[in-house]
């Protein structure tokens, strides 16, 4: 079922969902199941599965730089299919512009259609570690809005090769990313919101936000989006702080602000077990306020660990 239909059917009740990361190349999918199992009691109508591009690191070898692949996490579509099969739950593969030609994307979407996957998150992807700016694949898309348009076209039965006579309509429900504290490359929140509107106008059906730790910017973001004519569901993304290192890492990687009282509470912790508890408590309070405000779904970034998400869900649902 489509994410938007799950939201409609919930009739105002806030749903629980979460995102998982595929195992690194060569690891077993069982590891993933072990993390999903404890969360199924909260009845997620859908589970997101992220996609990663090939990433390389360069190692000096004599006078040469040797390119080595790192952090490859293949199998997003296969993992979606096996999660749906095992748990009887809808899955949402993340589909990236970066690293893929339009033709490869089309094949991937056709696979989704054949596998009964009815939703995708359409994303641009980040610049690679050795790139200053995002560089699209040759023959690929530059922005998520272009990818959304391709999926929307396919939903109308328009394949890239127009000579194919096609009436096989996919009807994929399309999610896109939103940034309550603006995307790191955007000159301003307002211009970023206009870009978000372009994604909706291109055919996106719902928005999932970047993580945030202060609900106020999220509420303002929703208000500004509505003022711009964005009427689709906006789903907040929540990530609990789990280790002290997150205080530096999260603002640096995701360009988000951490509230001073959260920083102080984490700083005062003697060890990471205490940090984890602070992170859980913070996410519970955040989630309760968002739920009271009537958000359609609370979507959690599990980052491969479900124990803290379970603790939060127990406090909220
Ligand atoms: P876009 O919407 O294309 O926007 C990118 C930037 O370009 C923004 O600054 C925007 O304002 C600007 N822009 C857009 N259109 C134009 C235009 N026409 N002209 C000029 N500027 C423009 N990354 C992964 O690699 N894998 C994942 O699985 C993944 N999952 C994610 C899930 C969520 C919920 C979120 C919020 C992010 C996720 N990301 C993932 C990260 C995402 O790929 C990055 O944040 C990326 O840098 C931007 O992606 P986007 O789809 O928002 O891009």
UniProtKB/TrEMBL annotation:
Which molecular-function annotation in GO is an example for this chain?
A: FAD binding
Q: Which UniProt keywords apply?
A: Amino-acid biosynthesis, FAD, Flavoprotein, Methionine biosynthesis, NAD, Oxidoreductase
Q: Does the keyword NAD apply?
A: yes
Pathway annotation from the record: One-carbon metabolism; tetrahydrofolate interconversion; Amino-acid biosynthesis; L-methionine biosynthesis via de novo pathway
Protein EC? 1.5.1.54
Superkingdom to which the source organism belongs: Bacteria
Segments forming a coiled coil: none
Checking InterPro entries in the record gives: FAD-linked_oxidoreductase-like, Mehydrof_redctse-like, MTHF_reductase_bac
Pfam families cross-referenced by the UniProt entry:
MTHFR (PF02219)
Q: Which Gene3D superfamilies match?
A: 3.20.20.220
Q: Which reactions fall under this protein's catalytic activity? A: (6S)-5-methyl-5,6,7,8-tetrahydrofolate + NAD(+) = (6R)-5,10-methylene-5,6,7,8-tetrahydrofolate + NADH + H(+)
Q: Does the keyword Amino-acid biosynthesis apply?
A: yes
Where is it found, in Gene Ontology cellular component terms?
cytosol
Q: Which cofactor does it need?
A: FAD
User: Tell me, what is an example of a GO biological process annotation in this record?
Assistant: methionine biosynthetic process
Please give the PANTHER family that the UniProt record associates with this protein.
METHYLENETETRAHYDROFOLATE REDUCTASE, METHYLENETETRAHYDROFOLATE REDUCTASE (NADPH)
The UniProt entry's sequence similarity note says: Belongs to the methylenetetrahydrofolate reductase family.
Q: What is this protein called?
A: Methylenetetrahydrofolate reductase
């Amino acid at each position: 079922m489509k994410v938007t239909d799950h939201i409609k059917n919930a009739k105002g009740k806030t749903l629980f969902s979460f995102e998982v990361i595929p195992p690194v190349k060569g690891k077993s999918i069982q590891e993933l199941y072990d993390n999903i199992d404890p969360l199924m009691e909260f009845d997620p109508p859908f589970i997101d599965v992220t996609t990663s591009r090939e990433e390389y690191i360069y190692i000096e070898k004599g006078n040469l730089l040797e390119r080595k692949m790192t952090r490859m996490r293949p199998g997003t579509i296969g993992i979606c299919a096996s999660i749906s099969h095992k748990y009887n739950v809808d899955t949402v593969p993340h589909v990236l512009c970066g690293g893929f030609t339009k033709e490869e994307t089309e094949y991937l979407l056709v696979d989704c259609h054949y596998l009964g996957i009815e939703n995708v998150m359409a994303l641009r992807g980040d610049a690679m570690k050795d790139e200053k700016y995002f560089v699209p694949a040759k023959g690929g898309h530059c922005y998520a809005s272009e990818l959304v348009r391709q999926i929307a076209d396919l939903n109308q039965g328009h394949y890239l090769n127009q000579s194919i006579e096609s009436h096989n309509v996919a009807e994929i429900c399309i999610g896109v990313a939103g940034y309550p504290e603006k995307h790191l490359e955007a000159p301003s929140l307002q211009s970023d919101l206009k870009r978000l509107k372009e994604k909706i106008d291109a055919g996106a059906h719902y928005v999932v936000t970047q993580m945030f730790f202060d609900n106020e910017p999220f509420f303002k973001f929703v208000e500004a989006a509505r003022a711009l004519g964005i009427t689709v569901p906006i789903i907040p993304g929540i990530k609990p702080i789990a280790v002290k290192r997150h205080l530096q890492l999260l603002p640096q990687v995701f360009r988000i602000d951490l509230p001073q009282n959260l920083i102080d509470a984490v700083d005062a912790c003697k060890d990471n077990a205490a940090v984890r508890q602070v992170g859980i408590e913070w996410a519970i309070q955040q989630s309760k306020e968002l739920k009271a405000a009537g958000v359609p779904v609370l979507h959690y970034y599990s980052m491969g660990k479900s124990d803290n998400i379970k603790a939060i869900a127990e406090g909220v649902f």
